[in-house]
Design goal:
It comes from Paracoccus alcaliphilus. This protein is mainly alpha-helical. Helix content is 64%, strand content 0%. The chain folds into two domains: 19-75, Arc Repressor Mutant, subunit A (Orthogonal Bundle), CATH 1.10.10; 77-214, Tetracycline Repressor, domain 2 (Orthogonal Bundle), CATH 1.10.357. Helix 8 (142-155) crosses helix 9. The N and C termini lie far apart (82 Å).
């Protein structure tokens, strides 16, 4: 068959999009919509338009908007907490906590984390049932994961843990309380200072519970 350069190229078959890819596109669109407009104002029609799919396509993967919201949080859990830790990890305790709470991420990831934390805090306050759904379905279990990690450290003799629930709560207050500012940080230097202050507070916490590093 001879090639004719004057003939327009024939179009091939349109690329088939996998179910996994469609689902990721929908979750990404939902994430953007929830952050910008909130849970109440975001509709499946808005999400479908952003994802360039039909509403029917959304319901092929998700029963309702609550399940879709949970998928958004689930997909961003890595920005909130990095647990469990590698079994062979032998870092100083402060360095381990820095990694657990993702205090070493770059600025772009830091902004993404700030957005997801604000989304969780805002929508959980306005919609308690939504918060209950996230906890009941193990989407949010930072406290439980921290408790499990603390108990492992105690069993290994690296930390004295009198009350793991209280200790986990203190760690969450130290870190997440600082990562949810009352005002938007103006520049990079303020973000660097915030992380530095969190690390100093974690160091004070560790001195108070007698870690192996200080023995």
């Amino acid at each position: 068959m001879n090639y004719n350069p004057d003939e327009p190229p024939r179009r091939g078959r349109p690329r088939r999009v996998s179910d996994d890819e469609r689902r990721r596109t929908i979750v990404k669109a939902a994430h953007e919509a929830f952050v910008e407009q909130g849970f109440a104002r975001t509709t499946t029609a808005i999400i479908a338009a952003r994802a360039r799919v039909s509403k029917r396509s959304i319901y092929e993967f998700f029963d309702d908007k609550t399940e879709l919201f949970a998928a958004v949080i689930q997909g961003n859990r890595h920005l909130i907490l990095d647990l469990p830790r590698p079994a062979e990890e032998e870092l100083p305790m402060l360095d381990t906590l820095v990694r657990i709470f993702r205090l070493d991420i770059d600025e772009q990831a830091e902004r993404e984390r700030e957005a997801i934390l604000n989304l969780i805090a805002r929508e959980s306050t306005q919609f308690p049932d939504l918060s209950d759904y996230l906890y009941e379905n193990n989407i949010l279990r930072a406290r439980e994961e921290l408790i499990e990690w603390l108990l492992v450290q105690a069993r290994q003799g690296r930390m004295v843990v009198d009350d793991p629930l209280v200790h986990a709560g203190m760690l969450m207050d130290i870190v997440f309380g600082a990562l949810l500012p009352r005002r938007r940080l103006a520049n990079r230097s303020e973000r660097v200072m915030r992380i530095d202050h969190i690390k100093k507070r974690l160091a004070i916490f560790l001195r108070g519970i007698r870690t192996e590093d200080q023995r």
